[in-house]
Amino acid sequence: MTDGQAPTLVLLHGLAGSGEVWTGLDAARHWAGPVRAPDLPGHGTAAPLDRYTFGGLAARVAEGLDPAEPVVVLGHSLGGVVALALASGWFGVRVAAVGALGVKVSWTPEELAKGAALGAKPAKVFGTREEAAAWAGRLAGLPAGPVNGRDGGWRAAVDPRAFAVGRPDLPGLLAAARCPVLLAAGETDPMSPAEHLRALVADPVVLPGFGHNAHVESPEAVRPLLARLAALV
Question: Average pLDDT in the 72-95 region?
């Protein structure tokens, strides 16, 4: 740990999620320093961006962090890309180590077009909280997702425009990182197959038996990543 004190652990959720997805990890009991799990811009209760880019997301997250204090960032999916962007040092944050869980490496033109189309549509408004939560869960790949009351009904707590953020340059982000990086994914994650990660790093962490949202499926299986990250500092 830096100077005998553990850095702040910053947990970044994936697309259409919120900071609450990390609740089961109980990181405060398993990390020696402070823990933060903010909502990404346009997600949960966080204000939206005028335009969604990975740099714009990272810049907004960086605004909420003390530039004088070191941090370790563990991000899932979209949050993992934002974590890698922060690792570049371009946003004035002292990142000591990064863990990226379930980051999608390979994108087809059809997948990018689908994201752009979804980002161009207005948010769906539902009559009940339960209907909205089910739809939000489909967007996030979870049993239920975060919602808010708005426009006379309920809607997923995500700005639809965030779905059009596009394809991340993972090789470029890894090359720009100024700290150790740990890539990880669930063994059965169709969005982040182990062979895709091995094309980027020699030794990704593969979590046996788990899918894209391993931190929700089995927080216990993901907790060892905290120890791995602590050892990198």
Answer: 97
Residues 185 and 223 placed together within one structural domain of the fold = yes
Whether residues 128 and 88 fall in one domain: no
Contact yes or no for 53/84 (Cβ under 8 A): no
Percent of the chain having pLDDT more than 70? 98
Whether 90 and 25 map to the same domain: the answer is: yes
Which pTM value belongs to this model?
A: 0.95
DSSP 3-state assignment of 103?
Answer: coil
How many of the other CB atoms lie within 10 Å of CB of 3?
7
pLDDT at 150 over 80: no
Domains of the chain: total: 2
212 shares a domain with 152: no
Domain with 140, as residue range(s), is 124-157
